[in-house]
């Protein structure tokens, strides 16, 4: 089993930056791709960014050019968020695709407001 713990959320003004971190532990050898999802109140959870074990990245159109996903081996994944907008406000979840299915962190709140 894989455990994921997110950190780095908080309150930031529009145009500001935050860096989210996700630490993986447990059976990390079973992890393939990792990613970040977010869920705003009243909305469905959506994919923000993903990165494969080989380093291939993908982004949602709404964050492309502002967010950057990166990964240190299989233990840490990061999401650098720049030029944040109020519509980026959501709970952000770390996700790991493993051989036995997806695993999720508990989420970290990001609030963009003046």
What this model shows, in words?
0% of the residues lie in helices and 58% in strands. The protein has 114 residues and is mainly β. The strands form two sheets. Strands 2, 4, 5, 6, 9, 10 and 11 form a seven-stranded mixed sheet that branches. The termini are far apart. 31% of the residues are buried.
Mean pLDDT: 95
Beta strand count: 11
Helix content: under 10%
Round the Cα radius of gyration to an integer and report it: 13 Å
How are helices and strands ordered from N to C?
EEEEEEEEEEE
Please give the count of helices. Answer: 0
Low-confidence stretches: none
Shape: globular
Distance between the termini: 40 Å
% residues in beta strands: over 45%
Alpha-beta content class = mainly beta
Largest sheet: 7 strands, mixed
Summarize the structure in short.
With 114 residues, this protein is mainly beta. It contains no helices and 11 strands.
What does the secondary structure layout of this molecule look like, with pairings?
Layout: E1 2-7, E2 10-12, E3 18-26, E4 31-39, E5 46-51, E6 57-59, E7 67-72, E8 76-81, E9 90-98, E10 101-104, E11 108-112
Parallel strand pairs: 2-11
Antiparallel strand pairs: 1-3, 3-8, 4-5, 4-9, 5-6, 7-8, 9-10, 9-11
Brief descriptors of the model:
single chain; 114 residues; mainly beta; 7-stranded mixed β-sheet; 4-stranded antiparallel β-sheet; 11 strands; 0% helix
């Amino acid at each position: 089993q894989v455990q994921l713990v997110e950190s780095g959320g908080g309150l930031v003004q529009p145009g500001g930056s935050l860096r989210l971190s996700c630490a993986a532990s447990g059976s990390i050898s079973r992890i393939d791709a990792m990613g970040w999802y977010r869920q705003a109140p009243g909305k469905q959870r959506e994919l923000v960014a993903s990165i494969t074990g080989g380093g291939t990245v993908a982004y949602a159109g709404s964050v492309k050019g502002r967010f950057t996903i990166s990964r240190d081996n299989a233990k840490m994944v990061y999401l650098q968020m720049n030029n944040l907008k109020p519509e980026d406000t959501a709970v952000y979840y770390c996700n790991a695709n493993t051989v036995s299915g997806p695993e999720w962190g508990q989420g970290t709140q990001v609030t963009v407001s003046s």
